[in-house]
Amino acid sequence: MNQPGRLHPITIAIRDMADIFGRMGFGIAYGPELETEHYNFDALNIPADHPSRDMWDTFWVKGKEDEGRKLLRTHTSPVQIRWLEKYGAPTRIIAPGKVFRNESTDATHEAQFYQLEGLAVDEDITLAHLKGTLERFSKEYFGTGAKVRLRPSYFPFTEPSVEVDVWFPQQQKWLEVMGAGMVHPKVLENAGIDAGKYQGFAFGLGVERFAMIKYGIPDVRLFHSGDIRFNYAFDEKKL
Amino acid sequence: MKVSLKWLQKYFDPSTGSGQALPTSAEEIADAYTFHAFEIEEIVGDLMDVKVLPNRAADCLSHRGIAKELSAILNLPLKKDPLSAPVPMLDVPRPTLLEVEIEDSKKCLRYIGAVVRGVKVGPSPDWLREALEAVGQRSINNIVDATNFVMLNIGQPLHAFDAKKLMQKDGVYAVGVRSAKEGEKITTLSSEECDLNPNILLITDANAGSAVGIAGIKGGKSAEVTAETTDIIVESANFDGTLIRRGAQALKLFTDASVRFQNRPSPELASYGMRDVLALIKEVAGGEAVDVVDVYPSRAERGTNVNVTLAQVNGILGSSFSQEDVASVFTRLGLPATCESQTFTVTPPFERTDLVIAEDLIEEVGRILGYDQIPAAELPPLRGEPDQARFRGIERVKDFLVECGFTEVSTQSFAKSGDIELANPLDKSMPALRTSLDENIKAALEQAKHYAPRVLEPKQKPKLFEIGTVFTKSGERLAVKTSEPVPVPPEIHDAPDYMPTRYELGAYKPFSIYPFVTRDIAFWAPADADYGLTMSIIREHAGELLVRLDQFDKFEKEGRVSLAFRLVFQSFERTLTDDEVNAIMEDISAALCAAGYEVR
What we know:
The complex is a heterodimer of chains A (239) and B (600). Chain A is built from seven helices and eleven strands. Chain A has 239 residues and is α+β, with helices and mostly antiparallel strands. In chain A, a hairpin with an 8-residue loop joins strand 3 (60-61) and strand 4 (70-72). Chain A is globular and about 50 Å long. Chain B has 16 helices and 28 strands. Chains A and B meet through helix 1, strand 1, strand 3, strand 5 and strand 6 of A and helix 2, helix 7, helix 10, helix 12 and helix 13 of B. Strand 11 (236-238) of chain A pairs antiparallel with strand 24 of chain B.
């Protein structure tokens, strides 16, 4: 008797997200997991020896001095630069993918996890569009009762930068779910975009965190252990 | 940044001038910061832990900076801003008692040194000791406490040396700022022995040629202020942020001073620091400043004006703020601004090193007025279909494999060996990146076989796949790996029109970490028994420990129906014993018999 297999919950989550953003006009882009220091940091306005580098604990790769330093990407943001360099503006993409952080693991921290980056660049994209986009996304992903609120934050590659909280009516609480902001003009220029003409928003969310909230998963380490009990820990309905 | 609310309150003292009281509710204060400036980690009693954002670490790692923010947010004027008025020249009449020699003005941007004679070192007055202890600092003596207090108050790191431990030449002290020599050593105030190298900047007794401190990081033991000290040299300086950051990392010495210097506070701040610390030393330890020398080779660039138009503000934020709204933000933040035909020209005060481009000002407007004032707007529709072709191509392969009975796993990208090695692995036994998915799939399959009875039906066997990035000498690529051969091996091609299958998942059901026990039962069913009834009899008598029930056999013989079920038992609390599972099985058999089943 043959059985159908099961997708990994991360795949199911990314498909849900791709569908929602797809209906808002977002294409899907990919970039390398083994990145250069240039794309992961410098082009994103995170210079060497700047204290803001402390925001990302980085896995560096052994290599020859003259080839430039390589690392495991600490976020999906380098895809912004690579995509803009290649396709220019206007554009609207999401970029799902694995990222790496050199930090000890616990129930909410993994050294490798998935991020989903979002980028919308055009002549008149505003922070209000970011809010509207994320509000619609949250309502479609978490349920119609979800609300979005923005708080001040700092990322070198966005200005203004915000932290995004989502309101969960069942639990009656706000949870911090992602960082976002208006793309820093320097980042646009580093990718060859005319920052006088174009502007846009970007955001980055942790896919595991979204799935953990949506399904009540208690420990992020369940995701990438290769344990099929995790796939089967959910009732699954084909849509 | 640890902030004392009592200390903060001094900036808003209601008893004098135009000052007003802070809100008394900790929640109100926390919300004010959280929604307009910085996240508050926690407020416990008097102590508030503020997560100062990296772009504001140059001015907000200080009670003054934190107070200034609250003043803008709540629109409560500060009683007195210690940075508001320029500091008059600190140089006092000669004869010169102190000389300062800076080797490289790119490394030491400014050095103000002062000689204070006749201090009386002793315990600090209660208010000073209590203020420091309130933010988790240890009171040491009145001189050291004065330098720490002023640093925590306005953000300028300061240091005091015992002057008599430095050599005088013709009655003149000489402080040097130079790179350490290869092999040079220093013992710090807390008695750590540090091996130095030319990337580390030192403060030296230039007459003697010996090190008295690690610049911007920590003072040296050799010139420590003690109870016997009567004359001191006070330092208020500014060192290159990158140099201090690298030095602190190399020495693994992260101090209040190094954290501040690495964020590049303005060198202008040094004179305010010296003014305040000399005043405080005089107050708490007496003595007289007999010489102050200000060597300022790399004068801070006078803040360049930043322009922003009202149209830019609303064009980035998507808001409809008025000219008055925007002007009020600059007023509340104490940012000198003029406005002409809806263009604002802001002259950032020296300490606001973060305000450089129009977007920086737009952020100030957004956060101070509040992001709740920003409407939510839908993106305009896009012409044409978004390109998801590669994604859909990958998902098509996953759907195909799931249809073939494979379950998708996700495994770690790190491996015992590989072509690409990490310089700083987290797990030393996994120092490389995987070159293929083979080993991980093999390991996952072994594990899956073990768990199969728990998650699969009795006649099913686990089949796994992973699609993931592998890293080889020729670069990285997306690999597809199945735990057993597939008749038509799938390849990933762009599939612009493929619609990936969607699934709805229920809430996560935790699984037990304890071993499970399986038991089979087979019986002849009575003619009128249906599947549902049979299942419910078994479930009822199996109890809570039954975690899975599958029928795995059914046949008819001479008008009778034989059924076989597999039962899986597991506890969330413990390992089950054979005896207790046997007892449950006997109960089930008895119940089935009573209902007319004949257990085989």
